[in-house]
Protein 1
Amino acid sequence: MLHFENVGLRYGMGEEVVSDLNFSIAPQTFQFLTGPSGAGKTTLLRLMLLSLRPTRGTIHIFGRDSATLTKDELTGLRRRIGVVFQDFRLLDHLTTYENVALPLRALGRAESSYRAEVMELLRWVGLGQRMNAIPPVLSGGEKQRAAIARALIVRPELLLADEPTGNVDPGLARRLLRLFVELHRLGTAVVIATHDLQLMDQLGFARRMVVGDGRVDIFEGNPE
Amino acid sequence: MTEPGDDGAAPIAPSSEAAVARGAPLIPRDSISGSALVVVVAIMTFLACLTAGGALLVAQASQAWKTDVLSDLTIQVKPGPDDDVDRVVERVVAIAVRQAGSGAVHAYSADDSKKLLQPWLGDNIDLALLPVPRIVVVRLANDADIAALRTSLAREAPQADLDDHRVWASRISVMAGAIVSLALAIFLLVIVAMATAIGFATRGAVAENREIVEVLHFVGASDRFVANQFHGHFQRLGFQGAAIGGGAAIAFFLAAAGLSRWSANSPGGAELAALFGSFALGPGGYFGLLLVAGVVTLLTGILSRRIVVRHLRALQ
C-alpha cells in the first residue's frame, strides 16, 4: 500500500530532516508513529500524504511511484486516504454536518445521496446532536471527532492521524482510540502519530514506528 | 460500538434530518475583499454604462443632425453689380420649384436677411450698401435630383451658388465618430481597470482562503472543483456589483431624460436638447446597458476562474 525506499527530505540547503527511510505499510495494519517532539512525525505524515515531495528516494503509494504522479492522479489517490490533522482543519463557516460531508461534496455527489450516510456517521461518533453547530462553538473533543468523521466518511484505505488525542482528556482519548480500532477492523490501514505512551500501551498488537534523529525504527506489535 | 460521550461543549439545539443545514458556499461570502470588489465592480460598471450610454446618445444626436442638415439645401444668390437681385431670386425659386415642388422652396426676403444679420450687425443696417447674398432654402424629397438642379442653376442663374451641406454633414460625422471612438477608448480603459481590480481581489481571496483550498485538496477535491467554488463566489460578487452599477446608470439616464423633458422649454434646455437630443436612450439603449452589466458579471466570473486555475497550477 505504502512503501518508502531510501527516502530523504531536506528544506532548502539545510540538513536532511529525515533520511534513509525504508519501510512499508501493509493494508489493514495498525501502527503508531511516535518519537519526541520535533523528531519529524508530522513531516513523515506529510510525506505519506504526498503534501511534501522527498528530495531523494522513492515513495510508492497504492502501487504508483509518487514522483510520476500528475496532479489529477494525486487527487485520485488522496480520495483513498483519510487524514486527521493535529489542528483539525475544520472550516469554521460550515456546520459539523457540512464539514464531515466535505469529501463527498468534493467528489461531486448530490447532497441527497449522502445525507443519511453522513448523519449516521455523525451519530456514530457521538455528534448526532451537534450537526448544525459550527466549529467555533464545538469543544476540543467534538472538533476532534468531527475531523475524524470527515476522514472516515469516504471509507479510506489508509488513515493518517496526527496527534488525534492530543487535545482531549484521557477518557475521551480512549474512546477515540476505539474508533480507530473499529475502523482498522473494517479493513483500513491506520497510522496514528502520537507521543502518548499510555495510549500506545492500550494496543499491544499495533506496530510502533519510532522517529528519532531523522530515522525510523520499527517495532512489530504482538499478534492479536 | 460505544459512542464517544459529550465532553463539556456549549449546548446547542438537537439536529434533525429535516433541519440540518447544508449547501453553504465553501468560500465564505462575507469578507472585506469581497465587499470591496462589489464596490469596485459597481463603480466601474456605472462608468462603463455612462460611457456606453453617452456614446450612444452622441451617435443618435449626430444621426439626427446629419438627417436634418442633409434634408435641405441652400442656394445663395450673389447678384452682380448690374443684376436685379429680386428678379434673380425669382428665377432661382422658379428653377427650384420645377425640381422640388412649390411647397418645398422658401426664399428669404431682404427683411429676412436683415433679421438674420441683426444679431451681428445691429438694427440700423442698410443691406443695399452691402453685397449680402439672398438665400433660398429647398427642402429635399428623397428622390430629389440635386445634380439636375445644379445644372439648371448653372445654365439659367449663374449668380446662384448651391450648397448641399455635404461638407457640414461630413464634419458632423467626423466629430461624432471621434466622440464615439473616445467613449469606446474610455469604456475599454474602464473594463481593463476593472479586470485588474478583479485580478487583485481574486488573488487576495485565494490568499485569504488558502487554508480552505488546502483542506479541499487534502479531502480529494480536484482543481476544477476548487476553481468552480471561486468562480461561483466571484460570479455572485460580480453580479451584485454589476446590478448596482448598471441599475444606477439606468436610473441616471432615466432621470436625465426626465430632466431634459422638464427643462425642454428653457434656453439652456433647448441647447442641451440640440446637442444631445432628449437624453432618451430608447429600449435598445437600455438593453445595451443591461448587456454591459451582464458582460461585467460574466467577465468577473471568467477572469477570477482563470486566475484561480493558474494559481492552483503554480501550487503543484
Note: The CA atoms of residues 250 and 286 of chain B lie 7 Å apart.
Protein 2
Amino acid sequence: MLKISKVSRRFGSKTAVDDINIEIPAGQMVGIIGRSGAGKSTLLRMINRLIDVSDGTIEFEGKAVSSLKGQALRDWQRDCAMIFQQFNLVPRLDVITNVMLGRLNHRNTLLSLLRIFSEDEQLMALKALERLDIAQTATQWAQTLSGGQQQRVAIARALMQEPKILLADEPIASLDPRNAQIVMDALAEINEQQGITVITNLHTLDTARTYCERIIGMSQGRVVFDGTPDQLTTEVARELYGADGLAEAFSEAMTSTTLEAAKPRQKKKKHMAIVPGTAFAEASLPN
Amino acid sequence: MTTLEQTGLSQAGQVVHKHYRSLLRTRRLYTLGSLGLLLAILVGALLFAEASNSGKFIERLPYFFDFFIHFRPDEPMEVVRAMFDLPSPYADGSFKYDYEVGRVYLFGEFYIPEYFYQLLVTINVAFLSTLIGVVVAFPLAFLAAANATRLAPLRFAVRRVLELFRAFPEIVIAGMLLAILSLGPIAAIAAIAIHTIGALGKMFYEVVENADTRPDEGLRAVGGNWFERVRFGYVPQVMPNFVSYFLLRTEINVRASTIIGAVGGGGIGEVFRLSIGRDHAAKTIAIIILLLVTIIAIDWLSGVLRQRLVGDAAFRFGA
C-alpha cells in the first residue's frame, strides 16, 4: 500500500503539488488525469524520488520512502519502476543492454561497469522483450527504434527491476494511437498478471476510462476527483479541464504533445475499428 | 547449448540470443585486443624513455629543494613592492631592485605596474589569437564535417589544411614568422592564431559530426540551403560544446602566449624569463602569483560565461 499524506511541492514561489492525500492499495491500476501543469508529473516524480517533497510524507508498506537516502533510496527506486513520455533510454546502446540496465540495483557495480551480464540476465531480458513482442530488435541501438518500440523497451527495462510499483509518466503522449494501445495493453497486462501496482499519468479521459479501475483527477496541484471511471461524469471532467479543454480531453487524436513522427490526425480509435489491421500495417519492420 | 524448455524462449528468441552472444564475443575480443596493445605500447614507451634518459634522475633527487631554499626574497614585502613597482629599501642601483623603472605612466602620476602591463600584453595576445582562431575555425568545421558537407574532396582539402595548421607548435610557427613580422606580440598573435585554427577546427568538426542529423533532415525537407541548414540545423546543437572548447582554448593560449613571450614575443613571459634567469626572487614570485591569479580568474570567468551561453537548464540536477 502506497500512502501519500499531506504532500506538497514548491518550485520557488510556485506550488506545483498542494497538500495531497492519497492511499493506493497494492495491485490497483490508477490513472491520474488533469491538464498539463496540474502537478501530475511532479507527483509521480516525488513518489520515485526523482525530486524531493517539500512537505508531507510518502509511505510504502509502512516505510517512509520520502525521507530515504543512499542505498535505501536506490533500493526503493528499484522497487518503484518508472517509464517516461520520452522513454529515456540510452540511445547509443543496444536494446538488450538497455533492458539489462534495469538490473543495476540488483548486481555488482564493477561487473555492470564492465558490461558483464550473466546468461540468466540475458535470457531474462530477452524474455521480457519477447513478451512485449520486440525481441528481434535486441541487438540494435535503441535510438534506431520507433517511439512505440522504444517505450516497450522501457517497459521491459522496468520489468527487469522486478518492481512492486510501476509509475508511468505520460507513457503514450508521444505515441500514435496504435502504439498507444499496445503500450497501455502491456501495462494493464502487467498489472493483471503480476499484480504490480500501476500508477499512470494520462492526458485523456478515454484512455483512463478504458484501462484504469481508479481515476484521480488533479487540478492546480490539488486532487479534485478520486473515484471509479463510472463516477467521472461530464461535470467533473468540465471542472478538471475547463469548458475549452473538454474536447481535447476526450479526443484520443490529441494525445500527442510532441511533433515527432508523421501522425495523421484522423487516426482515432473509432477509425481503427472500421478497417482493422489494414490501416496500421507495421511501418518499420525490424530486420 | 540451452534448449527451449530450459530457457523458455521461443525459437526466434533463441536465434536472437545466439546472435547477441556472437556480437558480444567479437566486442570483448576487440576490447581485450586493444587493451593488450595499449599495455604493450605503454611498457615499450617507458623502457625507451628510461634508456634515452641521461640517468641522473635518482642522483639529483636530493638536491630537488635546493632551488627553493636559495631562491628567497629579502623579505615578503619585497614581493609586493616588485608587483606594484614600489621603491625598495634595498635599492643599490642594480637590476634586482629597480622596481620603479618598469612603471607605465598613463597620465600624471597614475601608472600601471610593469608586470600588470606585461600581463595585459600577454592576455591580449591570447584573446586576440583565440578570437581569430574561432572565427576562422567555425566555418571550416562545417566544411570538414561529414554530416554537414557531402562533397568529399572539399572535406578532404579542409581537413588537410587544418592538420597543416596544427601540425606545428606555436613556438615553431612564431620562429618561422620571425623573418616577416620580427619579434613581438604581432608575430605571437599570428603564430597562436594559426595553431588555434587547426586545433579548434578539429574539435569543432568532431562536435558537428556527433550532432543529431534529424533537425538537418527537417530543414532539408523544408528546402533550406546549406547555409540555412548549418545555421539552424547544427549551430544551436553544437554551440554549447563550441563554447566549452573556445574557453578551454583561451586558457591554453594564455599559456602559449606566455611561453612565446619568454622567447621574444613580449609580455609577461619575457620578464619572467629575465627575472628567473637573473636570480631575482621577489620579481619571479610576484609574476608567478600574477599568472596563477590570471588562470584562476579566466577559469571562473569562463564558467560564468558558459552558463550564460549554454543556458541554466544544462546545470540543473533532477527536476
Note: The two ends of chain B are 47 Å apart (CA to CA).
Protein 3
Amino acid sequence: MQDAVRIEGVSKTFVTRSGQVHALADVSLTVGEGEFVSLIGPSGCGKSTLMRLVADLEQPTAGTVEVFGKTARKARVDQDYGIAFQQAGLLPWRTVAANIALPLEIHGVGRRERRSRVAELAEMVGLSDFADHHPDQLSGGMQQRVAIARALAERPRLLLMDEPFGALDEMTRERMQSELARITAETGAAVVFVTHSIPEAVFLSDRVVVMSPRPGRITSVITTGIGRDTARDEALRESPAFFEKVTEVRAALHGAPVRSPALEGR
Amino acid sequence: MTTALADPTSPVPETAPVARSGHRRTWVARLRAAVLGLLGLVGVAGLWEGYKAVGPEEGVLVGENRVLPRTTDLAMPHVWDMVQRLFEPVTSLGDAEPLWRVVLDASVVSLGIATVGWLVGTSVGLLLAVLMQRVRIAEWGLLPWIVLSQTVPLIAFAPVVRSWGSRIEIAGWEWPSWLSVAVIASYLAFFPVAVGALKGLQSPDRIHTELLRTYAASATDTLRKVRIPAAVPYLLPALRLGAASAVIGTVVAEVSTGYLDGVGRLLVSYAGQASGDPAKAWAPIFGAIGLGLVAAGFVALLGALMRNYRRGEAV
Amino acid sequence: MSPTTERAARVAAPVLVGVLGLAVWQLLVSVLGVSEYLLPSPSEIWAELGENSQAIREAAWITGGNALAGLVFGAVLGVVLAALAGWARWFDGMLAPVVASVAVVPIVALAPVLNSMYGADSEYGRRAIAALAAFVPVFVNTLRGLRQTTPLHRDLMSTYAASGWQTFRALTLPSAAPYVLTGIRVATSLAVISALVAEYFGGPRGGLGSFISTSAATSAYARAWAYVAAAILLGLGAYLVTVLLERLVQHRLPTGNPR
C-alpha cells in the first residue's frame, strides 16, 4: 500500500520585512492511504503551512514532500488531492451546481458527465434542492458543504482541509463533523485536517498530530484508536474513551508529560 | 463634466443588494422615487423661471462683475418657449424640417461616433488591463502615467487633431473627419476603463486564485473563470465613466475640429443665432443631454444583464 | 525579487517608459519625417514654450482663475446641498436624479448659451460651467460621507445621551471629512478641464483654451501644442495642490479612514 503523504525533514522559512520567520523546522510525517490525520496546535505553529506545502501552494526551504510517491507539484498538476479552506471560497456569481462543477470544467470534463457528477455530489452533501441557488442565499454551513462537494468533485484519494469548520457555530459544526466522517468513509480518501478544536480532531481522526510554535514542529502524535468502522455519532462524543483521548491531546498541547508512547517522526 | 462621482482612480464596487422584500414595497418605493425625481426636474425649471421673474434685467452685479445672468427673454427664454420651439420649423423657409428632427438626426450621428470611440477605447483599455495584470513590470511602468493622465486636461489637444483629417492618406484611402472625432472620444474613454479593469482583475480574493492554483489551472482559465467575472463590479462604473467621457469627447471634438454633421456643430451655430431666436439654442442642448442619458442608460442595461456577477461577496 | 529591487523597479519603470515615449516621439518626427502638422517634435514645442512664456502665463492665469472660482462656488454648493439632502430624505429624492443626470451629461454644451446669458465679454459663463462640473463629485462624496456613521456608533452616542451637535462633532464630521476631501480632489481636475474646454465654445479670448484653438486654426501647430502642454501643467499643478491640502487637513484633523 502506498502512503498518501510522506513529509521528510521539511523546514520552511519566510522572508519578511522584519526578518526571517521559521514557520517549520525539521518536520517529518507520514499519512497512510485512507488515513484521517488532524494537525492541531496554537496559532503560529505552522499547521496551515504544513498543509499548504502538501498542496504545493508553498515550497519547502529544505526537505521533501511526496504525495502518492510523486512530488507535490506533480500531484497538484495530476489533481491527486481536493482542498477546502476555512472560508468556503465559493464564486459568488456561480450557482451551487456551477461552483461544484468548477474543477471539472477546468479539466475539460464533458457537459453531460459534469451534470451527473454534480447531481451525485449535491446529493452526497444534501444540497440537491439548492443546486440553482447562489452562495449569498445559503447559510455558512451550507456554503461549507458546497466547498466540500467541490473538493470531492474529481474523486481525489487525498483531501486537504484547512479549518473548514472554523467559521461555523458549534451546533452546525458538530453536524458537519458527522457528515464529513460519513463522506470520507464512503469515499475512502485520506484526509489531512487542520483544526484548533481538540474534540473535533479526536472525533474525526485516526491520528492527531500536535504541533508547537517558534519554530513550528511536531511535539507528539496521538493515535485515537477509534476505528474506521466505529460510527462517528453522539454516542461516541459521550464515551469515556473519547474523553480520555481529548484529555490526552489537551495535555500534549499544554506541554504536560505525554503518557502515550505514540511519538513518531521527530 | 465627467461622471467621476467618486475618485476615478479607485472605482467603488457596486454591490447589488439582493432585493428580497415584498414586491409591493419595491413598487411603492419606485413610484415614490419617480414622483420625487419628477419634482426635482420641476424644481430646476421652477428655479429658472423664479429667478427670471424676480431677478433684475441686467443680472446681479457685484461691483463691475455680473455674477448672475441677465433675465431678459433674449438671455433666458421661458422653459415653455424652449419646448415649443422644438416643434417649430428650423428656419422660416417653407419646407424646413421641424427643429427636433434636425437635432435628433445630428444627435444620432454624434451617438454613432461616440459609440465607435467608446468601443475602441474600451477594447484597448481592457487589453492593456489584462497585460498589466499579467506582467507586473508593465503595470509599474504604465499605471502611474495612466493615473496621472486622468487628472490633467487631455482633451486640450482636440483642436490640434483637426489637422490630421486633411493630411493623412493611406493608399488612396482618406482619413474621414469623423474618425478624428472618434479618436478623441476613444482616447478619453480609454483611461477610466484601463484603471477600473485593472483594479477589477486584481480584485479576486487570494482564496479564489489559490483554489485555481490547486486545480493547476492555466492563467487563461484563471482569467476567464475568476478574474474577469470578479472584475465586473469594478468594470461597470468604469464603463459608465468611459461612456460619459466618450460623449463629452465627441461633443467637444466636433466643436474644436469643426465637424459639420454632429450635435456639437448645432450647439455653436444655433447659439450664434440666439440674438434673434434665443429658444432655438436650447434644442441642441437637449440633444446633448439626451446623448449623455442614452449612453448612461446603455451601461445601466449592461449592468442589469450582468447582475449575477454583482452579487455581494459570499464568504 | 527582493523588496529593495522591487522598490527600485517601481520607480525606474515609469521613468523609463516616459523617456522611451519621448524618444520614440522625437524619432518619429526627426528621423521618419512625420509632418509637423501631425506631430511637432518635443524640442520644437519646448522652444515655443520658451518664446511665449509671458503670454502662456497670462493665459494660464485666466483659465486657472476661472477654474478656481468655479471650484470654490461648486464645492460650497455641493457641501451645502449634500448636508440638506442628508438631513431630509425627500430633498435627496428630488435632487438625486438631477445630479445623476448632470453627472453623465456633457455640461460644456451649456457654454454657448451661458455666454449669451452673461454677455459676450464675461468670464462668468465659464465659471458657471466649472462650478457645475465641480459640484457633482463634491455633492456625491459628501453625501456618501455623511452616511458613513454606523448604527453601532449612533447607538453608542445615544447611550452617552449626546446632543445632536455633540454627535455631529464627535461622529458625523470626522467620518465625512475624508469623503469631502476626496470629492474636492476629483472636482479640481474637473473644474480645470471644464474651464479650459468651455473656451472652445466661443466667448472672450485670452485663456489657454482659446489660444489652443486659435493657434491650431492658423496652422501654428507647435505653438498650439505648447499651450496644450501648459494646460496639462496647469491641471497637474491644481491636482498636486489639492492633494497637498488633503494631506495637510487629514494630518490636522483626526479623521477616520476614507474606506
Note: The mean pLDDT of chain C is 83.
Protein 4
Amino acid sequence: MNRTGFTTTIPLEVLLAADRIPVDLNNLFITGGKGLELVEDAEACGFPRNTCSWIKGIYAAVMESGIREMVAVTEGDCSNTRALMEVLSLGGIRVIPFAYPHDRSVVALTEQIERLMGAFGVGWDAVNRAGERLESIREKIREVDRLTWEENLVSGAENHCFQVSSSDMNSFPDRFEAEIDRFMAEARSREPFRDRIRLAYIGVPPIIEGLYPFLESHGARVVFNETQRQFSMPYGIHDLVERYRAYTYPYDIFFRLADIERELEKRRIDGVIHYVQSFCFRQIEDMIVRRRLSLPVLTLEGDKPGPLDARTAIRIESFLELVGGMK
Amino acid sequence: MRIGIDLGSRKVKFALVSAGSVIRLETFDTISFYRNFGRMKGDDLTFDLAATGLFSPAEISGSSIVATGYGRNTLHLKSVRVISEIRAHTAGALFQTGLRDFTLLDMGGQDTKVALIRDASLRDFVMNDKCAASSGRYLENMAAVLEVGLEELSSHWENPVRLDATCGIFGESELIGQIVRGYPVARLCAGVNRTLVKRVVPMLRRFPSEKIVLTGGVARNGALVRLLEEEGYVVTVPENPQHNGAIGCAVISG
C-alpha cells in the first residue's frame, strides 16, 4: 500500500477507501524526535526564518520520508500551504489540493470531497464503509475524552495524544484501536486526578514539548484540547459531508468559539491557554478570543520545536497563580 | 526579619525588610554574581548567600527568605520559598505605593510585564514574548551606540527622531544612520526613549487603567515617564523601582 501524506485533517475516509496508508505530515514531523533539525533543513533549503515552523517541518519531513503523494489543504488552513504544495510538486511529488469552503456550503464541500474521491478513484459506497469503520474508533476516542473531563482518569497529555493521532489513526487504524482499548482498560483502574485547576487548551497543537506535564506538576490539568478533539470528529455524525461541516477548525473563528464556549461550560474550566504559532494568521484571532471569552486567557506563542523554555514557564506559573487566586 | 531576592537577567537584587520597613537594598551584576558566588552541585547551579557578605549570619538565620526571578530555582538553600515574578512585583508595588487600583508596568533587563491590579489583587497580566527590544538591555545597547551614559540617555524626550526597526540589533544600525544625518544627541536619545513607549503602549491598552506604577530598572528613565504622561497616563514611580521584586518577596504574606 502507498503512503499518502496530508497537511492537516482531511476526510480520512477517502484515503482509507482507496487503501492508502494515511500519514498526517504534522505528526510525522513532530514525533520523529528531530523536529528542530527538520526546520533547520528547510531553512537551509531557502524557507524564510519568519514563516511557520509547521510548514518548514512538513516540507523537510516529506523530503526525508520518501512520501511521493500527498493531499494539501489549501483553504481552511494557512495559505502558506499553497506555496508548500508548489515547492513539493516541483520535487516530483504528486500533490492533490483540497479546500474547505469558508462558508461551509454543503454543495461546495460535497464537490471538494467528490474531487478528492475522483483523485483516488473511489466511490461513495467504499467511502461510507470506511466511514463506519472510522466512526467506531472515533467513538472510543470520545470515551477517552469523557474519561478525561468527567471522570478525571486521563492526563492532559494522554488526551492530547489520542485525539491528535485520530487525524490519521496513527496510519494503522486496527493497531490504533487496540492501543486505545488497552489504554482505556488501564485508565479505568486508576485513582482520579485531584487537580486544583481545570484548564482548556485551544488553538493548534503545541510545537513545544513538556507543556502538559509542566502544568500538571503545578496542580493544573488540561481537560479540554480543542483542536485535537476536533480532529476526532467528535459529534458522531453519520453523514460524511455533515461530519466535515461540523468540524470547526477549518471554518471561521466564531464557529470555533461556539464549540469552545459550550465545552468550557460543560467541562467546568477555570482558565484557558490559547496557543498560537509564530507567524500564523491565528495570532490575529487571539484578539477575538480574548474579547469573547470571559475566563482568564493566557496566550502562548510557540516558534520552533523543543522543550518548554524558561520564559514560557514563568508566564504559565504566573497565570496559574492568577487562575488559582480567582477560584 | 525577611530577605527578598530577585534573580534577574541583568541584576540580582536583595532586600532586607524588618517590621514593615526596608532596612537594606543591594544589587549585583548577574554574571559576576554567579561567577563569584555560584557553584555547581550535581547538575544544579547553587549559590552561597553567606559568602556574599550582604547579611550577617544572624540576619540569615533569623530571616525568612523568599526568592523570585529567572534564577529562583537555582537557590537550593534550606527554607527558601520561591514565588513567581508577577506575584513578587505585585506585592512590591502594593507595599511601595499604598495604591490598590492601578496597572503595573515592570520593565527589567529582558522582560516587560504589564499587570492589572484591582482592589489590591492581580486580575490579569501580559508579558513581552519572543522579543526583548524595549527592555533594559536594549537601552544599554543604544546608550553604547550613542556613546552616552544611561543617565544622559534617560534625560531626553523632546523632538524624538524617528526609529522604526523591529529588531533591536537593526535598531542600532538605524540609529547610526540617524547619527550620520546629523541629528543632535538629545533628539537621538529621545528617539530611543520613544521606541520604548511605542512597544509598551499596545500592552498597556489591554487594560482600562490610566494609573500606572512603573517599576524595574527602566523606571529610572525619566524621559520614559514623561513620554508615557504625554500618552495620557498618570505615572507613579516608587522609591526603589529596581528593587520592587526583591521588596515584594520580602513583604509577601503567607
Note: Chain B has a mean pLDDT of 90.
